[in-house]
Amino acid sequence: MDRLSRPATLASRIAQTLRDDIAAGRFATGARLPAEATLAGTFDVSRPIVREAIALLKADGVLVTRKGSGAYVSETPGGQVWRVASAPEGGPTLAQLFELRRVVETACAEMAALRRTDADIAAMRQALDAMQRQADDFPSAAAADIAFHHAIAQAAHNPCFTGLTDFVSQQLLAARQRAWENTARLRDSDGQPRAADAEHAALVDAIAQGDPIAARAAATAHLGASAARMGLA
Questions:
Q1: Which end of the chain is more exposed for a tag (fewer CB within 10 A), N or C?
Q2: 10-73 domain in CATH 3.40.50.360?
Q3: In the predicted structure, residue 89 carries a pLDDT above the cut 70
Q4: Residues 6 or more apart from 216 whose CB is under 8 A from it?
């Protein structure tokens, strides 16, 4: 374990270094980590910084602590919480998150077409209707947009995909609101209907028809157009 410089995210960087050490097998499942004082010396930081790093890993389920004994590698050293590690410049960037969204949501659409229930389709159409009714209330429209894509992820009937979709959606919430505002301005200037409405409807129709190829294609088309509207294409 190398000593680190002192950036603002020092505790998170130490936590990531410890996470990497655990993943590499330097600390096995059930193993006790060195004492706080030892880790503080290794990283050349104060004990409160080490304590904060351990708290981060404990919150993610990587470590467990025992009063008076120290921190131990848990039975699930990979952690129980999914998060995006920050890039050196403070990422992830909007483009990186949207790239992840393209991969996850096209797969969700394909699986949803194979596994959807009537209740799943009803949830999608309800969210679609809410988006259309609340189009001029940008926070509400963005929330309905998130609910729409959440419904598609749920229709895949794999909680891993649902959790990942929800995480990315929350990271992109502000960008979604800006996209709704931009769409409203364009509609006011040229009188054209919102392109996203037709894209969403086509996606629901493909899933409802049980056509995984069409569903993936519709999701790909929608996400490509969304990226262009956000200036990411």
A1: C
A2: no
A3: no
A4: 106, 107, 109, 110
Long-range contacts: 169-177, Cβ < 8 Å, 24+? 170/146, 171/84, 171/92, 171/97, 172/94, 172/97, 172/98, 172/101, 173/142, 173/146, 175/94, 175/230, 176/142, 176/145, 176/146, 177/138, 177/139, 177/141, 177/142
Q: Which CATH class is domain 94-229?
A: mainly alpha
What CA–CA distances, in Å, run from 59 to 62, 64, 80?
8, 9, 9
Grouping H, G, I as helix, E, B as strand and the rest as coil, residue 184 is helix
- Tell me the domain boundaries of the chain: 10-73, 94-229
User: Which residue has tokens 């189009």?
Assistant: 135
DSSP letter for each residue of 20-85? HHHHTTSS-TTPBPPPHHHHHHHHT--HHHHHHHHHHHHHTTSEEEETTTEEEE-S-TT-SS--PP
Q: Which residue has the tokens 């999701």?
A: 219
Residue 156 has pLDDT above 70, yes or no: yes
| Residue for token pair 């706080």 | 36
The pTM (predicted TM-score) of the whole model is 0.67
Q: DSSP secondary structure string, 98-145?
A: HHHHHHHHHHHHHHHHHH--HHHHHHHHHHHHHHHHTTTSHHHHHHHH
What's the pLDDT at 8?
43
d(CA 60, CA 83): 9
Which pair of structure tokens corresponds to residue 149?
Answer: 């894509």
Percent of the chain scoring above 90 in pLDDT: 45
